[in-house]
Amino acid sequence: MTALAQELRGQGEETVLAVPGMHCAGCISSIERGLKGVPGIHSARANLSARQVTIAHDASLKARDLVVELDRIGFEAQPRRGPLKQSQSAVRPLLAPLAVAAFAAMNVMLLSVSVWSGAEGSTRLMFHWISALIAVPAIIYAGMPFFKSAWGAVRRGRTNMDVPISLGVIIATALSFYEVVVGGADAWFDGALMLLTFLLAGRVLDAMMRDRARTGVDALLSQAGQGAMVVADDGTLEWKKAEELLPGMVMRVAAGERLAADGTIIAGSTRFDQALLTGESAPVPGARDDAVLAGTLNLDAPVDVQVSATGQDTTLAEIARLMEAAAQDRSKYVRIADRAARLYAPAVHSLAAITFAGWMIAGAGWYQSLVIAISVLIITCPCALGLAVPVAQVVASGALMRAGIMVKDGSALERLAKVDRALLDKTGTLTRGQPVPDPSLLDNLPSDAASVALSLASHSRHPISRALADALTARGCRAAELADVQERPGEGVFARWQGGEVALRRPESSNGIAVMLEIAGRPAWLIPFADRLRPDASEALARLAGMGVDASIVSGDQHASVEIVARETGLPAQAEASPQDKQDLIVELQKAGHHVLMVGDGLNDGPALAMANSSIAPGSASDVGLQASDLVFIQQSLLALPRVVHTARATMRVVKQNFALAIGYNMFAVPLAIAGLVTPMIAALAMSMSSLVVVANSLRLARAARK
Amino acid sequence: MNVLAFLIPVALLLGLAGLGAFFWSMKNGQFDDLDGAANRILIDEEEDEDEERKE
User: Range of B34's domain?
Assistant: First the structure.
């Protein structure tokens, strides 16, 4: 295997591409077969979980050529930043401890059952010694994740769920080991190992869910705008990464490409889409000597831009600073399990201390009092309590994932459940964020004209042409046969059809985005494009209102265009809000006692997304939006919003029920323990029963996201 | 008792072998693409061979 890899590397290079659109067996086989046929490619291996393709190829092929090849096969792809960089998985470090704990627990339980069923004398001693030999190293190894976390909390003078867990496990192990050495009757190794196994299983599930969400979001992250084609003094072109760009360099920005740095146009004229940066939906014209900003999309024609600002001076850097400050605020949130532990740990530990004192006063002697106090600690060890939160959240996140919503952060559902106020961005959030052709005009377009338009549009990679082609294809339109097709940058697509000239071109003048369809001998059609509301927007907002969540719009766009959407949705709106304004609005609402949900997609929403109590972004959002938000929804419908709020509230209800169940179990078991009646067998039974009940209760959430 | 002295080590060895196999497979990337493995079974290999023969 490694020899083969080395051989391949000797011949060429290995490139990893992200392919977000890959989702089934058919996709895997068409990608792998399609790439195999390309000269220069040695092998291609698709990874469906990570949505990546690893390609071994000749050094002559560049990553951009591979992207073009995948596009030909029908998949959108982006080169990954670091080739072969393994993404940081949260599951991996927990799998080995889980395997060890489960192996040890099964073997020790086998020996314990024989002891319980009446093994005596030297047989019991031998079984106890074997159990100890298996259990002690296994507990030290498998318990490490808990011990480390508990030690970290204690050192800072805090407590979390891992503190009572670690104490219980360590004390149980130490007491059992002492019992084995002195040849006593009871050893608790099986209980300690079972506890670790259950808790690790809960954590592995939790980490798996987050891994899935993270790889899903990783695949969405676009790599566009992270570099530029730089024109050297001698006219040669070279691709440079964003961090290698220096002021004074000249970058050539093609139509449909995002700018990687702030700068000034020195040649050409075009229009820019600044929606991601400012929220403004109308294209902004740019000509020679105009300043342009990083992150904006070049719409029409290639331009040469001289880089003016890099590093700390760009608009991007300013937004990044605002976000960093906001994210620190949020990390102060204390999760519900840790809040429960703050009450639980002192209660349990003082109970054990009182038990010890009580038996001492009753005259039971040091040894017996200590054993009973420790059995109180073991029986209260929060097995069910440790599972109460993670299992409920795993089941709920799984249900949300199936509904197309990815939960990125473990505490997101807890924070979301309290939300009572929602702020929505306009462009890209309430609306789709991409201009679509006016449907009523397409209805009136004669079918032959429509097929000419589709054919012309399909010859261009311009975003507007693509939108038109998609809309016409969706209507079942067929492409007409054209001759002499040519695309002139900044003007349009021109061709001949049935002997006459046809063209799909940029109109002479229009407000907003539009294209002109010209067919010789007929009047020209002006096809206007507009950003439409997402489907079900009004129903989604009505449901949110029904749940007691008031919504309003906050947008960076101009008053006039925000006004239209505000009227359509019936929501109050604030227009021309800068990123700082949005953040201030959230702080104001939070001071008034509200829990704010921010819904946004753009770069300009980043600080607000990081500042809000909870945040959600559509899958089409900018990299910054995807990274700053807690949840990402990938379907078109805005119904995702009421759905997540509903699911989050249902999850918190189940978590509270789980706590009640776990505490109920303790109410039953603790008196037995204090009375000194608990044997290792009762402890093992009680522990598994309460865990099963909690898991079963959490499974009810599997259908929570359907509503 | 003699039977036990034989059976217990055997049971432990078998368990350890399973544990070792799990660690080995994890190290070798068997768990890298669980979704892919589940889906690859649906890819028709014969079709692939047919195509190659045609080519």
Answer: 2-54
Helices and strands (H, E) in chain B, number of each type: 3, 0
Cβ neighbour number for residue A535 with a 10 Å cutoff: 14
* Residues β-bridged to residue A17: A53, A79
Task: Choose the final residue of a domain: A516, A532, A548.
Answer: A532
| Contacts across the A-B interface (CB distance below 8 Å) | 54
pLDDT of amino acid A2: 44
Residues of B in contact with A106 (CB under 8 A): 15
Min Cα distance A54 → chain B (Å) is 12
pLDDT for A334-365, tens place per residue? 677 777 777 877 888 888 899 999 999 988 88
CA distance A217 to A212: 9
Residue A101 scores a pLDDT above 90: yes
Cβ-based neighbours of B10, under 8 Å, separated by 6 or more: none
- CATH number of the domain at A68, please: 3.30.70.100
Which residues constitute the domain of residue A31? 2-86
- Who among B12, B23, B32 is closest to A47 (CB)? B32
A520 domain residue, yes or no = yes
A277: domain CATH number is 2.70.150.10
The interface predicted TM-score of the complex, written ipTM, equals 0.71
> Is this model's pTM higher than 0.80 or not?
no
DSSP annotation of A311 reads: G
Count of the separate structural domains present in chain B: 1
Q: Look up A425 and say whether it is catalytic.
A: yes
Task: Please report whether residue A689 resides in a domain.
Answer: no
The mean per-residue pLDDT over the stretch A258-277 comes to: 80
List the single best residue of B3, B6, B22, B25 to mutate versus A (max A Cβ within 10 A): B22
CB spacing of A49 vs B40 below 8 angstroms: no
Whose CA is closest to A565, among A275, A271, A278, A281? A281
Task: Print the SS3 string covering A551-591.
Answer: EEEECCCCHHHHHHHHHHHCCCEECCCCHHHHHHHHHHHHH
Contact check, Cβ <8 Å, A28/B36: yes
